[in-house]
Amino acid sequence: QVQLVDTGGGLVQAGESLRLSCAASGRIFSSAVMAWFRQAPGKEREFVAAIRWGVQRTLYADSVKGRFTISRGNAANTANLHMNSLTPEDTAVYYCARGVDLTSTPFLYRDWGQGTQVTVSS
Questions:
Q1: pLDDT block averages, 10 residues each, the chain of length 122
Q2: Which residue pairs, CB below 8 angstroms and at least 24 apart, start in 44-48?
């Protein structure tokens, strides 16, 4: 089982940017999918973005399209989420996940990070 460690969360003001990183304990194979989800207090876990590792095909939630970018990091086992033009509605705990299908369905992802808090003030 792959261990995932999410980092990069913090407190920012509306309109600012933040980059989250997800480091996997082992190699991320080209067929794998890395994704980010988020969960705000009292709400269900929500899909944010995903990337198929080898071909770098991406999938985004409509709510973040054009503002967030998921990418492979400089390190071979790192996935990043670049978040621009943040709004208070983006406040949540963000989780990295690994699966095999490029999908927005949480239960299809097998491995999860511990989460990192992102708070956007108005």
A1: 92 98 91 97 97 95 98 90 98 97 96 97 96
A2: 45/95, 45/106, 46/92, 47/104, 47/105, 47/106, 48/81, 48/94
